[in-house]
Design goal:
Arc Repressor Mutant, subunit A; three-stranded antiparallel beta sheet; 290 residues; Jelly Rolls; alpha+beta; 11 helices; 10 strands
Length: 290
């Protein structure tokens, strides 16, 4: 599977961020095979008609749609090139880490690394126009860089990402209140880094230097589910990803995920989905699952 990597030279300056017009990208976002990228993407569709399969979600793309894509999420586009007008914001996590003091910023944004809620949202045309206006300002600073461009880009981006986060929270009835600690977000980050070799909450609590009880309280306070639920959902997603996008056997997948016996994986999958791995794959390939 193809992985597209970020190229700093494309934006003309030494930033791990870029804004691109859909006019340049029609071929890349119409009929494609499955691929991923090593950067974040937010797509703002003024006009669109088509389908996106992203992170195992099937998303209908229409006018005034915003799509959120995290690094290495697998996706496939089927879009009508005659009805397509969009703007793309791309950046690497290191860009935000350099720009903002909060190293967990991307994990606090509800629409990235999301498994339980949509990876897109519909807004009105005014909201799309306003967002694209901000992106135009960012693009202007990138192409005509001045001494204070970095500060202007930082403020515009911070404003845009948080406004999107607020709207996403409203649409999905998610809380925005600040947590007293960041253990929940650190847990979420560690899952992305270690899910292939660690599948016990105790292991993550140990990495954080806290008790399992403390971690569970932090996760419940922020996400309203247990740490075990979050871990199981992330592990289930990883198994589905291997089933859909690789030719590995169940035994090979179990080995990749450091699961001692293939039967353990099979039982876990059946308990979480009600399906065997072969039933799930059959249903997916025949459009019977989302």
């Amino acid at each position: 599977m193809k992985t597209i990597k970020f190229h700093k030279t494309e934006c003309g300056v030494d930033f791990l961020l870029n804004v691109r017009s859909g006019d340049e990208l029609v071929e890349e976002y119409t009929h494609t095979g499955v691929y991923n990228t090593d950067f974040f993407e937010i797509l703002f569709f003024k006009k669109a008609k088509g389908l996106l399969i992203l992170n195992q979600q099937k998303i209908d793309i229409a006018d005034n749609t915003i799509v959120f894509i995290s690094p290495y999420q697998k996706r496939q586009w089927t879009m009508d090139s005659c009805h397509l007008d969009f703007t793309l914001l791309i950046f690497q996590e290191d860009f935000l880490n350099d720009f903002f003091a909060d190293k967990l910023f991307t994990y606090r944004l509800l629409y990235f690394y999301q498994l339980d809620y949509p990876l897109s949202m519909k807004v009105d045309s005014d909201a799309i126009q306003k967002a694209c206006g901000i992106l135009s300002e960012i693009k202007s600073e990138l192409t005509t860089t001045q001494l204070d461009s970095e500060h202007i880009i930082r403020s515009l981006l911070y404003y845009l990402l948080l406004k999107l986060n607020r709207e996403y929270a409203i649409q999905n009835q998610l809380p925005l209140e600040k947590s007293e600690n960041n253990y929940a977000y650190q847990f979420k980050k560690l899952l992305e880094e270690h899910i292939n070799e660690k599948q016990r909450v105790n292991e993550y609590a140990s990495l954080l230097g806290i008790s399992r009880i403390t971690l569970n309280k932090a996760v419940q306070a922020k996400f309203n589910v247990t740490a075990t639920h979050v871990l199981k959902q992330r592990l289930l997603f990883e198994i589905k990803n291997y089933l859909i996008h690789s030719d590995l056997t169940v035994a090979e997948i179990a080995h990749r995920l450091s699961i001692s016996e293939p039967n353990h994986l099979v039982r876990f999958f059946k308990a979480q989905t009600g399906l065997t791995t072969s039933q799930f794959l059959y249903d997916y390939q025949n459009g019977m699952t989302s």
